[in-house]
Amino acid sequence: MKITILYDNDAWNPQLQADWGFACLIEAFDKTILFDTGARGDILIDNMKKLNISPDRVDEIFISHDHWDHTGGLSHFLQLHPARVYMPSIFSGAYPAEEIIKVHDAEKLHDNIYSTGTLQDIEQSIVIKNNKKVTVIAGCSHPGVDKILDAAAQFGEVTTIIGGLHGFNDFPLLKNLENICATHCTQYKNEIQRRYPSAYIQGGAGKVIEI
Ligand SMILES: [Zn+2]
Ligand SMILES: [Zn+2]
Q1: Number of domains, the chain
Q2: Could you tell me the residue range of the domain that residue 125 belongs to?
């Protein structure tokens, strides 16, 4: 399984543009899923181009929540490539998508790929299960990292979290994780890295994480 960060507040690869927002490409179990779309479609597409990733490669889009720094690039992307979109249940707005699926409760999207369901009426996270280990990718973690980890745990032992953790500061919750890529809006990146240096993975646009 391979996760490539396409859009982030920082750039891992200096050729890519950093901008407030988040998007990543998930390649797992023969599916290529775009998770969120950053704030601006032109930056998203340009960063993808620099990584040699054509929009046509994307099978589906998974939107974590209806905030501009995650959905801003969606219309632009869909104009180039109208794919199926999984939206959180509260999502409003019309998009030129091939199909829009609103996700309320936890559900299986494909073999080994799930949604936590829309938690706290705001945000869903995607869950990928690989060799019994569970990876969860979060947009901003508005429902709370505890709730997201609990929801992901119904699919197996959570070993990896990737994405924005916002103001999360209940650090011991992360102690059993093998991989922590706390990026985007995470306020306490330095503290998380200090406490869990071997699990910590620095994010940024262009970072590739293989699990
Ligand atoms: Zn947000
Ligand atoms: Zn955000």
Answers
A1: 1
A2: 2-210
Ligand in nearest proximity to the CA of 65: 1
List, for residues 20-71, the tens digit of each pLDDT value. Answer: 999 999 999 999 999 999 999 999 999 999 999 999 999 999 999 999 999 9
C-alpha distances out from residue 83 to 61, 89, 93, 140, 194, Å: 7, 18, 16, 23, 40
CA of residue 11 to ligand 1 center, whole Å: 19
Domain holding 201: CATH number?
Answer: 3.60.15.10
Q: How far apart are CA 127 and CA 111, in angstroms?
A: 11
Cβ burial 25-64 (10 Å sphere, 16+ → b, else e): bbbbeebbbbbbbbbbbebbbebbeebebebeebebbbbb
Q: Which ligand is nearest to the CA of 184?
A: 2
Q: What residues contact residue 49 under an 8 Å CB cut-off, 6+ apart?
A: none
Cα 5 to ligand 2 centroid, rounded to whole Å: 14
- Scored b (16 or more CB within 10 A) or e, 130-154 reads beebbbbbbbbbbbbbebbbebbee
Average pLDDT over residues 136-162: 98
Give dist(CA 3, CA 143) in Å, integer.
Answer: 23
Q: Which amino acid is at 82?
A: P
Q: For residue 66, which ligand has an atom nearest its CA?
A: 1
User: Distance, CA 146 to ligand 1 centroid (Å)?
Assistant: 16
